[in-house]
Amino acid sequence: MKTDEGKLIDIEMQNSALTKEVHYRFQIYGARMIDHQVNRGDLLYSENVHEVYTILFVNDIDRDNLLLIDTYMPRNQLNHVRKYICLPIIMSIFHLLMLL
Fold first, then answer.
1. Which of 9, 57, 89, 97 suits a disulfide with 1, CB 3.0-4.6 Å?
2. What distances in angstroms separate CA 19 from CA 10, 60, 64, 73, one per listed residue?
């Protein structure tokens, strides 16, 4: 489903147990919804990528997470949402290691 603002919503119903595999499957569904919004070679991802929401109705209790409604976003150890690798820093480390 797509909202008027362009946000994508995936609604799922799960009748089986809430296993680790089910958790991964729903994460992959969300990642695919993001991936399918862009094409290789697109210059401006920011114009094409919209927020993705997954609404899951699960007939099970997640005993490790007893929340009625749960949200998550991928974050790093500094609580930043963005993820990237800074190649200049890696090259600096590499050059330092070569001096040892």
1. 9
2. 19, 10, 11, 20
